[in-house]
């Protein structure tokens, strides 16, 4: 077994993953253990392709709310951008890469940011479920 990194190459390289927007709000008295609490989780994505430079930019926005009796107890909007470059041969085109792979790469950073904000806000740990971006883009 050698140290050949060729087996790990995907044909894409990450240039950057950056936080564009972060907004977190909570009410003073958040209820934690009521079974009627609901969560609204929406993920939006936008892919921009520069085919000449083999660059794809993916903007992903998370909208999260915790609701009790029609009152938003917690709300958050987190927007991040990932910039990727196609570096070799790949069976996936730039737009499909952005919609599926790029989105899947950015999402854990958004999950971590929301978890960190929730801990700092004293509302416990908010753990978003994993997301299947292949299913989102069918």
Characteristics:
single chain; 138 residues; alpha+beta; four-stranded antiparallel β-sheet; 2 helices; 4 strands; elongated
Strand order of the largest sheet: 1-4-3-2
Please indicate the percent range of residues in DSSP E strands (runs of 2 or more).
35-45%
Structural class: alpha+beta
Question: Which overall shape is indicated by the principal axes computed on the Cα atoms?
Answer: elongated
Whole-Å distance between the termini? 38 Å
Order of helices and strands: EEEEHH
Q: Say how many strands there are.
A: 4
Low-confidence stretches: none
Compute the average pLDDT.
91
Largest sheet: 4 strands, antiparallel
Describe the structure.
The chain has 138 residues and is of the alpha+beta class. It is built from 2 helices and 4 strands; from the N terminus they run E-E-E-E-H-H. The protein has helices at residues 94-120, 133-136, and strands at 12-26, 38-50, 55-68, 71-86. Strands 1-4-3-2 form a 4-stranded antiparallel beta sheet, with helices on one face. A hairpin with a 4-residue loop joins strand 2 (38-50) and strand 3 (55-68). The longest helix is centred in the last third of the chain and has 27 residues, at 94-120. It is elongated, with a radius of gyration of 18 Å. The termini are far apart. The model has no long low-confidence stretch (mean pLDDT 91).
């Amino acid at each position: 077994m050698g140290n050949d990194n060729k087996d790990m190459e995907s044909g894409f390289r990450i240039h950057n993953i950056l936080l564009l927007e972060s907004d977190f709000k909570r009410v003073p008295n958040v209820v934690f253990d009521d079974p009627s609490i609901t969560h609204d989780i929406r993920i939006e994505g936008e892919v921009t392709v520069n085919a000449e430079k083999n660059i794809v930019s993916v903007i992903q926005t998370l909208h999260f709310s915790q609701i009790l009796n029609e009152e938003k107890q917690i709300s958050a909007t987190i927007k991040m951008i990932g910039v990727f470059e196609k570096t070799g041969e790949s069976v996936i085109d730039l737009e499909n890469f952005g919609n599926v792979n790029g989105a899947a790469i950015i999402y854990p950073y958004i999950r971590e940011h929301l978890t960190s904000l929730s801990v700092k806000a004293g509302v416990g740990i908010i753990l978003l479920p994993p997301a299947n971006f292949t299913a989102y883009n069918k």
